[in-house]
Amino acid sequence: MQHLTASQLKHLRSLLEEQKQTLEHTDQENDSHGLDESMRDGIGELSLIDNHPADVATELYYREMDLMLQNHDDRQLASINDAIERIDKGTYGICPICDKPISYARLEAVPTTEFCAQDTPIHHVSNYRPVEETFLMPPFGRTSLDEREDQNGFDGEDAWQAVENYGSSNTPAMAEGNEIHSYEEMEIEASEELEGCVEPYEAFVATDIYGNLIDIVRNQEYRKYMDAGEGVDMYRLAEEDEEDEDEEEFL
Q: What is the sign, positive or negative, of the torsion defined by CA atoms of 222, 224, 230, 231?
């Protein structure tokens, strides 16, 4: 501890003791996050045996959260006590790996630290992934028909898009695109697929049961089709015939 002055060491110890008092006070005021009471007492029933599991799901969730918070406080309190003990032993501020002094700036930022920045143990994130992810790959798993050339039906992705149109928990900031500013643009992708038909002309051509053309519905798809110059002569002739009939009726 030769690299730490007496005033610096006093300041670091005061930080540790202040954090310790705060944790102990919080634990006392919260009654150990409610862990001193059983779940049965929390919902005011003599027994949980006769209840359906779903009836106590909320209480179970909060009990698990209380355990997590209590474990976090216990670990933090143990780290503070270890740091104070190192101060008493004269080993505080010395990295046990390289035996080099830890900078005062690091100790002030993290008073409970035991290692220098270079030798801090790295907490590796587990590469274990749930088996469900393998089953669901590619996205939407076996319900996705996009990769199959022999299928063009309503698949799992289409089902999700239909449901998502009613809203989701996502925000525009979480959208895939970079220029999403409205919840109305929150679909997975801007799907241009026609609903209820395969070819564009099927959206506006009306036929009888024998396939004979009997009428043309001049809807939005019809206008897109004609404006793109894809309209065949029969559609244009049908439109002209109808216009002539309208003109004759007017006269």
A: positive
